[in-house]
Every structure is written in structure tokens, then in C-alpha cells.
Amino acid sequence: MDIQTQMQINVTASKAYEAFVNPNEISGFWFSHSSERWATGKTITLEYAEYHAELDIKITHIEENRLIEFTWGDHSVEIHIEEKDNGVVVTTVEKDFDESEVEQLLGQKEGWVYMLSCLKAYLEYNVKIRAALL
């Protein structure tokens, strides 16, 4: 089973892309810290200061301004950035859930909706919602 979530964001593809791959930007809406700029083949350490948590992701493929693919744990994630007339649609797809992981799948879906909402607020209005969690 896979989770797919998407949201319209009224910015350019390059601005949406940079929000994910640039360590100075990602803290505005998602993780509190990213160890370095995201690129194919890199292992990135992400931190959630609010939860005293840290995780590593492996960047498996990137197409600038269009696609970011990575793995975390047993799951793979795709972030698609598709240009539209008034901005972009950002779609996240987290893959490889099995029937025994329904509760985790639902929690992850909530997380993706929240992350995309924070991304929209950050990019369109420069509002750092995730920082309010501190």
C-alpha cells in the first residue's frame, strides 16, 4: 500500500525544490536541521529538535525542480513537483506499507498533510508553522 498526498502551492518549481534540498530552508517548514544539501547518493541526517529525534535518509534520485526520491527505514518516498498555471502541485508518495501497518500508514498520512500545509504557509506567506511546535 502507498500513501499519496498533494497540495497546490503558489510558487515556482525552483522555490519549492529548494525548500526541500537546501538545509537553510527545510527548517522553515519540516525538520529542524538537515546535515547538508540533498543530492543523489547522499545520506542526509535530519533532526526533529522538538522530539529529540534524528533519522538518516538515503537520497536515491533527484531531478532538479521536479523530483526527489529517498528511503527512510523500510519505506521509499517520492516528492514530485509539477508546474501548473499558478504555481506547483507538490505530491508526496510514501511506498511499501503492508496490510499489518494500517495504523502507521494513517499516522504517516497525517504527517504528510501537515508537512505540505506547513510548506504552503512557509513558501507563500513566510510563516514558520513547524517552529511553533517548540
Automatic annotation (TrEMBL):
The organism's place on the tree of life at top rank: Bacteria
Transmembrane parts of this sequence: none
Pfam families in UniProt: AHSA1
Ranges of residues in domain Activator of Hsp90 ATPase homologue 1/2-like C-terminal: 11-124
Signal peptide interval: none
Family: Belongs to the AHA1 family.
Protein name in UniProt: Activator of Hsp90 ATPase homologue 1/2-like C-terminal domain-containing protein
Organism: Staphylococcus gallinarum
